[in-house]
Design goal:
alpha/beta; three-stranded parallel sheet; Rossmann fold; GMP Synthetase, Chain A, domain 3; 2 domains; single chain; about 40% helix; 9 helices; 8 strands; three-stranded mixed sheet
Length: about 300
């Protein structure tokens, strides 16, 4: 699953899996890792890759996220490009259309998401694709081997089960026979440390909206497993001293609220009590610190 930020990829993956494997918020760059969601049903098993949204990269982390999305797409058997069709095609949308031709993706799905919106721009996206194809034919590749894929166009509503069924049907139609890669009761193989960090960050994003979302990082430092309880310590990273009181909130209200909400959701996720300790730390230019980025899962093999 690829596409620009906020196209609805994570919501769609969660809907198809039937469980929450990716965090969701209206803030760009919510997804910062490639997350595998596993669909297992009578027709077989699908492994869905939810990738960071392609965006105009600002800084080292932004470039890493874009590179992660592109490389994940290159290695996939089926590529589903998710478009936010409630808006007219954007630069990143056109970029993905051009890329699928350059990389010769044979099994291709164009998901026109948010089909329930009054302003639904299907015609504009189809027209944009025609222009990209025309441009590709006008300037063929150096090896002369031009391949124009025929995408399966699907209208979808990622927030409803019925609105996502056509996407699931198309994925199974394209899928090849093979052995199951995961046990039937697993919905994701995402490391728990990163899942915990993502859940905490999601609660901050929903609480703080646009105040400092891109400059906020979560690094889980310790997980102590007890009988029916995990004690988790995590650092909340900000770039500047002026951001620290914003994250903590007056009377530590923001920090307490985030902690309680994250503990509640993590308890449901792992089936036991979770006790969080959050430490807000100023780490200038943490998004350029490769050691920290590696610890937070952004410099792994997917990159």
């Amino acid at each position: 699953m690829v596409g620009r930020s906020n196209a609805g990829k994570s919501t769609l993956v969660n809907r198809l899996v039937g469980d929450k494997v990716s965090i969701v918020s209206p803030v760009e760059q919510t997804t910062r890792n490639t997350i595998r969601g596993i669909v297992d049903e009578e027709r077989g098993q699908l492994v869905l890759l939810d990738t960071p949204g392609l965006h105009k990269a600002v800084g080292n982390l932004g470039r890493i996220l874009n590179r992660m999305a592109r490389r994940s797409a290159a290695g996939a058997d089926i590529l589903a490009v998710v478009f936010d069709a409630a808006e007219e095609p954007q630069m990143e949308d056109i970029g993905w259309m051009s890329r699928v031709i350059r990389e010769r993706h044979e099994k291709l799905i164009f998901v026109l998401n948010k089909a329930d919106c009054v302003n639904f721009h299907e015609a504009e996206f189809r027209s944009a694709w025609d222009e990209v194809v025309s441009d590709a034919k006008a300037v063929p590749p150096e090896d002369g081997n031009l391949f124009i894929p025929e995408p399966r166009w699907i209208r979808a509503i990622s927030t409803t089960e019925g609105g996502a069924n056509k996407v699931l049907d198309a994925l199974f139609e394209f899928a090849e026979e093979g052995e199951k890669l995961f046990p039937e009761d697993i919905v994701t193989d995402y490391p728990r440390r990163l899942a915990i960090a993502d859940t905490i960050r999601e609660k901050f994003l929903k609480r703080m909206h646009q105040e400092i979302p891109h400059e906020l990082g979560i690094a889980v430092k310790k997980i102590v497993e007890g009988s029916g309880r995990w004690d988790v310590e995590a650092d909340v990273l900000v770039n500047r001293p002026s951001q620290k009181p914003i994250v903590i909130g007056r009377g530590a209200e923001t920090l307490k609220n985030v902690r309680k909400q994250a503990e509640r959701e993590l308890a449901e996720m792992f089936g036991l009590k979770i006790a969080l300790k959050l430490w807000v730390k100023v780490e200038p230019k943490w998004m350029q610190n490769e050691k920290l980025l590696t610890e937070m899962g952004y410099m792994g093999g997917e990159i």
